[in-house]
Amino acid sequence: MATAKIGDTVRVHYTGTLNNGKQFDTSIGGEPLEFTIGDGTILEKFEEAVIGLEPGETVNINIPAEEAYGPRRDDLIIKISNANLPPDLNPEVGMKLHMQTADNQVIALKIVEVLPDGVMIDANHELAGEDLNFSIQLVEIL
After folding, report:
1. Tally of structural domains, the chain
2. CB within 8 A of 131, min separation 6: which ones?
3. How far is the C-alpha of 53 from the C-alpha of 77, rounded, in Å?
4. Percent share of the chain, pLDDT over 90
5. pLDDT, tens digit, 9 for 90 and up, residues 78-87
């Protein structure tokens, strides 16, 4: 039977958990995740874990925070004044916003505090600072 290798397009089912056991994502009950190994669209260690698997095989891995979404950075918690917010926005703690950078990348932001003259936003990835655990099952090699 064929095994997954760099350049293969594969479909996998996965479940992601934190070290405390909290599940943060899963494809179980939905469509498998489809990606091409080596194209860089998902975490490198996740891709590497699929290499060598045969369809039906499962692997469990841990990806340290430094190799996942990096450490939490205090410099990514910044104030945005009301003048730079959409005029119809009614900001609330926990609300998610998106910002487009000068090079057309979209960054997800979360409001962490509402102030009289603006908001404090956190631009860290929601999984920054977390070690990630995945159970990955190769469903098929396309």
Report:
1. 2
2. 18, 19, 62, 63, 64, 65, 68
3. 40
4. 89
5. 999 999 998 9
In the chain, the largest separation of any two C-alpha atoms, in whole Å, equals 63
Give the closest residue to 12 by CA, choosing from 55, 62, 67, 68: 55
Domain containing 92 — which CATH number?
2.40.10.330
The domain of 45 spans: 9-69+127-141
The string of pLDDT tens digits covering residues 100-112 is 888 888 889 999 9
